Amino acid sequence: MAKHLVLLSLAVVFTFSCLAFAYEPSPLQDFCVADTTSSARVNGLACKDHMKVQADDFFFSGLHIAGNTSNAVGSSIKPVNVAQIPGLNTLGVSMVRLDFAPWGINPPHTHPRASEIITVVEGSLEVGFVTSNPENRLITKVLKKGDVFVFPVGLVHFQRNVGYGNAMALAVLSSQNPGAITIANAVVGSNPSIGSDILAKAFQVDKKIVEQIQSKF
Length: 217
Ligand SMILES: *[C@@H]1O[C@H](CO)[C@@H](O)[C@H](O)[C@H]1NC(C)=O
Fold this sequence. Notes:
Layout: H1 2-21, E1 75-80, E2 94-100, E3 105-110, E4 116-122, E5 125-130, E6 138-143, E7 148-151, E8 156-161, E9 167-173, E10 181-182, H2 183-188, H3 196-203, H4 207-214
Antiparallel strand pairs: 1-2, 2-9, 3-8, 3-10, 4-7, 4-9, 5-6, 5-8
The protein binds 2-acetamido-2-deoxy-beta-D-glucopyranose.
């Protein structure tokens, strides 16, 4: 009986320590500006000498400039994460500017390490995310200028400009390095390709249809 209790407590402790490690750890100092020249391999980036830290380590300029949306999906993403601002290292936050041509989309994708909160600055966007298995429920809404919406961490989501002019949105993400997995690119555009017979079964279509889609990536 006592042995079972010990095992149970170990299981509980293990579960909760996993939960704790599922998010970026809280900083243990004021800041840890990324030293991009360091060869140290740590979770995140090694800290630059505090005495050498400058205002520019926490600074980025250019988010007022619209991105180029002349591409196949009609959108542009300008990230401002630890790659642009070394001072974001260990802080668990970053942002992004999204531009959309009329009817442009930000295709279905997920951020493996971040929840996202988005606000529409100009135009209107149809947004949505899909819950995990087995429901796969689509939760969707049309946002106007000034509206705010949340995409929970890891869930597949998208945006589409449903206005007649350009649209612009700003989003904040709960990671210094949220990562992005675009579903179409990852599944049918991987390098090397996932076997078309595997995808044919996954999508329940003929191999030829899969190969036709794969040829677009
Ligand atoms: C936008 O991108 C397209 C396609 O790459 C390119 O032809 C065009 O010159 C770019 N426009 C600007 C203003 O940079």
